Amino acid sequence: MKAKAILLNLAVALVALIVLFPLLWMTSVSFMSTGEAATFPPPLLPKAFTLEHYRDLFVNQGMGRYVWNSFALATLATLLALAFTVPAGYAFAKLKFAGRDRLFQLLIAALVVPAQIGTLPLFLMLKSVGLVNTYAGALVPWLASIFGLFLVRQYALSIPDEMLEAARIDGATEGQIFRRVVLPTLQPIIVTLGLFVFLGSWNDFLWPLIILTDQSNYTLPVALAALSREHVQDIELMMAGAVVTVAPVLILFLALQRYYIRGMLAGSVKG
Amino acid sequence: MSAVSAIRRRERAAWTFVAPALLAVGLFFAVPVISALLLSLTDFDIYALADLNNLRFVGLQNYQNLLGNPLFWGAMKNTVWFAVLGVPLSIAASLAAAVILNARVVKWRPIWRVMFFAPYVTTLVATAVVWRYLLHTRYGVINWALQGVGLPPVDWLGNPETSIPAILMFVVWKIFGYNMLIFLAVLQTVPDDLYEAARIDGAGPWKQFRHVTLPAIAPTMLLVSIISVAGFFQLFAEPYVMTQGGPAQSTVTVLYFMYEEGFKWWNLGSASAVAFILFLCIFAVTLVQLWVSRRLGTEQ
Questions:
Q1: How does pLDDT run across A74-93, given as a tens digit for each residue?
Q2: What is B65-296's CATH superfamily?
Q3: Residue B31, min C-alpha distance to chain A (Å)
Q4: N or C: which end of chain A has fewer CB within 10 A?
Q5: Phi and psi based region of residue A62 (left: phi greater than 0; alpha: psi -120 to 50; beta: remaining)
Q6: Cβ contacts (< 8 Å) between A146 and chain B: which residues?
C-alpha cells in the first residue's frame, strides 16, 4: 500500500517534469550565450548566465513596441468586452423584454458557427472604412462575444429576484440597481470573463496577423512568428522572445487560476 | 397605471442593456458570416479588391474548382489525419492525467493540477517556436532522449511521414490539461464507496478503472471527444509557425489553406468557399454531438 502511494507520487512528479520541461528549457536557453544551444548533446543549463538576447530584443528588434501593442490591445479588449457583454448577460437573465427568449435561442444557435467563417468579409468591411492596420480593427471581434454573454447570463441567473425587487421598491432606477446591486454580485464572473478575454487577446494569432499589416502595430505572437522566420538559427534569441511573450500570461493565470478554472468548468460542463 | 409604466420603463432599460451587445454581434458576427456565403459565390480576387466593377457572380464555381483541386483535398486529408490521430491521443492523455491526479494518495494535488494545465494558457505561437527547437533533428532534446534509449534520430519536421505526429506531440502537450480538468470534475462526483466496494470484491487497479471509473466518465468522454474534433479542424498557427505547411504540403490544414488562398493570393471568393466547407464539416460534427447528448439524456 505504502509502495503504491510512493509509486503514484513519483509518476505524478515525472509527468509534471515532462509537462513543464519545454517551459523550463525555454527559460534556461534564453540565458545562454549565442550558439550554445546548437550543440549536441543539448545543454540544459547555461554555462554563463547572460541577458544579451533580452537586450538585443528590446534594443534592436523593437520588442518594447510589441509588448506595448499586446498589452494595450488585451487591456482594451477586456474593458470593451466587459462593457458590452456584462449588462447584456444580466438583462438576458433577469429583465423581461419582448422577444427575449427567441433572441436568446438565436444566439445559442449562432454559437455553432466558428468565428473564422466571417474573417474574410470582416476584413473587407474594415478595409472599406479604413480600419485595417489599426487598434480599432484588431479589437472589433472582441465586442461580439456570444460566449461571454452566456457566461454572464448563467451566473446572473442565480441573483435572487427578491433582491432586485427590494431595490425597485426603494425607488432605485434600473441603472442604479445594475451598478449597486448587480455588479457587486457579478464580481467573480467579471474577473473570470476579463481573464478569458485578456488571455484570449494576448494569445490570439490569426486575426492580428491579418488585420495588423504594419510591423509597428504587431502584437507579440505576430512579431514572434515573423522573427522566427528571419532568425531560425538564433535559438537563444527566439527563446528570449518566447519568454517575454509567455511570462505575462502565465503569471496572470497563476495569480487568478481559481477564477479561470471555475469559469472554464461552468462554461463547458454545464453551459 | 403606474405599474404599467414601471414595466415599460423596465423594458426600455433592458433594451439599453442588450442593444450594444446585439448590435456588435449583428454587425461584426452575423453580417460577416452571411457575407461569407455570398462572397463564396463570387470571383472576388485582387482585381475586385482594386475595383469592385471587376466582381462577378459565379454561382457554385468556386466550390467546383475546390473539389477538383488536389491541394484542397490534400488539406482536407491532412486535417482529417490531425483529428483522427489527435483526438484519441489527447483524450487518452487527459484521462490518464485525471485518473492519477484523482488518486487520494497523491500529495499536493491542487498544485499538480495547475502545473498540468499551465501549457493550455501559454501563447500558442511562442510554445510552437519552443517545440520547433525541441524537435530539431540534430540539437533537439527529443532526439537526444531517443538516442538515450538507443533509437536513431528522427527528422521530425522535415519528413512528410513524421510531420503530423510531431505537431501532434506539441498540440497534445498544449491542450491535454483542458479536458483533464473536465474529467477531474466528473471523477470527483464518483463516490469513494464504489471504489471501496470494488476493492472489497477483490478488484485490482485495472478492474476498478474498467468497472467504476470508465462507466462514470463514458458520457463525458464521448462528448468531449466530439467537441475536440471541431478544435482539431481549426489548426492553423501550429503548422504556420512550425512547418509553414511543409514538408511537401504534408501539414497544410484547411484553415491554413484558407489563409493562403485569401491573404497570400487574395482569392477571397475561393477562400470564403473554403471557410464554408469547413463550417459544414464542423456543423456536421456538432449535429452528431447534439444527437449523442440527447441519446445520453444529459444536459451538456
A1: 999 999 999 999 999 999 99
A2: MetI-like (1.10.3720.10)
A3: 8
A4: N
A5: left
A6: 25, 29
